[in-house]
Design a protein that fits this description.
The chain has 314 residues and is of the alpha/beta class. Helices cover 29% and strands 23% of the residues. Strands 3, 4, 5, 6, 7, 13 and 14 form a seven-stranded mixed beta sheet that branches. A five-stranded parallel beta sheet has the order 10-9-8-11-12, with helices on both faces. Helix 3 links the parallel strand 8 and strand 9. The longest helix is centred in the middle third of the chain and has 21 residues.
């Protein structure tokens, strides 16, 4: 038997349970991964609460989690390229928060041995998302980019990838996040009413690109600053995409193991960091999502599933 997160009705974190499930057996062309770490993401809250039930209804009892890292546990027939013991990263919708994941080899990327388990788990999700949106803007050294929610899971990676391209980066957040944003190479700007004026005061250069991760008027601020719609990308304001023609490039455009491996190499060599705010034990999944819902974390929250990762959260 193995353990997995399940919920049998829509609701708050209290509907989440860690239950025993049958250990999966790989079929032809499949592998089973013993999970070490699994990421948690804001979108999973909406799915569990039923916000997206019309688009992505739950199949109760429903699993949870998408991105994870672990070790190949078993290999089915006709599988080449992976063998038991290989360290991998993967993306398995509504299945990652479990001790075992059955998947296809093409949905796996190799994890560098020197890369810690916690950051490895978040690369296929927030890593790919940040990579896609930064690549879509094709930033140059002459540009000034604003990253909203720069201290968040996607934002903190986008800041670093944009800085690698040589762009000047301003990142919005609360004052409590300013030291963290500065450490990433960004100029911090407090979010809230009057944002466009504070951005103008923070730089003498015109803002040429904008990444919106939270909605809340960020697209409007970008347009007020004179940013062209084609240079604005939003992950949170679908209405603005229709109304203003801004872009909506996200994780789906970089959902490839080759991208995950590229980002993992950057992380393993210290060229970028995947900040981890806390690591919770799998059994503390309710507490982990309660903390995530507060939306004040810097970086990502991860679940420790296997035996090689020690939880750090209270």
């Amino acid at each position: 038997m193995g353990k997995a997160v399940r919920f049998s009705r829509y609701g708050g974190p209290d509907v989440l349970d860690v239950v025993e499930v049958d250990e999966p057996v790989p079929g032809r062309g499949e592998v089973v991964v013993a999970v070490e770490t699994a990421a948690i993401n804001p979108g999973e809250i909406g799915i569990r609460e039923g916000v997206f039930a019309d688009l992505w209804p739950a199949q109760f009892p429903e699993g949870q989690g998408n991105d994870y890292a672990g070790v190949i546990h078993a290999v089915g027939a006709e599988v080449n390229g992976f063998r038991p013991g290989d360290q991998v990263m993967g993306f398995a919708p509504r299945a990652a928060q479990a001790e075992f994941v059955r998947t296809k080899p093409e949905r796996l990327a190799r994890k560098p041995p020197e890369l810690d388990w916690a950051p490895a788990a978040v690369i296929p999700g927030v890593g790919a998302t940040a990579y896609a949106e930064v690549e879509a803007l094709d930033l140059s050294q002459t540009e000034t980019l604003v990253v909203s929610a720069g201290a968040g899971g996607v934002g903190s990676i986008a800041v670093q990838l944009a800085r690698r391209r040589g762009a000047t980066v301003l990142a919005t957040g609360s004052r409590n996040s300013f030291d963290f944003l500065t450490s990433l190479g960004a100029v911090p700007v407090e979010y809230g009413d009057g944002l466009a004026d504070r951005i103008r005061a923070a730089t003498s250069k015109p803002v040429t690109a904008y990444l919106d991760h939270i909605g809340r008027g960020n697209v409007a601020a970008a347009l007020t600053l004179g940013v062209a719609p084609s240079r604005i990308n939003t992950l949170a304001d679908g209405a603005a995409v229709t109304r203003h023609g801004v872009r909506a490039v996200g994780q789906a455009e970089a959902d490839f193991p080759s991208v995950w491996e590229y980002l993992a190499r950057l992380a393993a060599t210290g060229e970028i960091a995947f900040p981890i705010n806390a690591v919770y034990a799998l059994e503390d999944v309710r507490a982990a999502y309660t903390r995530l819902a507060e939306r004040h974390t810097h970086g990502k929250i991860v679940l420790a599933v296997g035996k090689m990762v020690r939880p750090t959260a209270p």
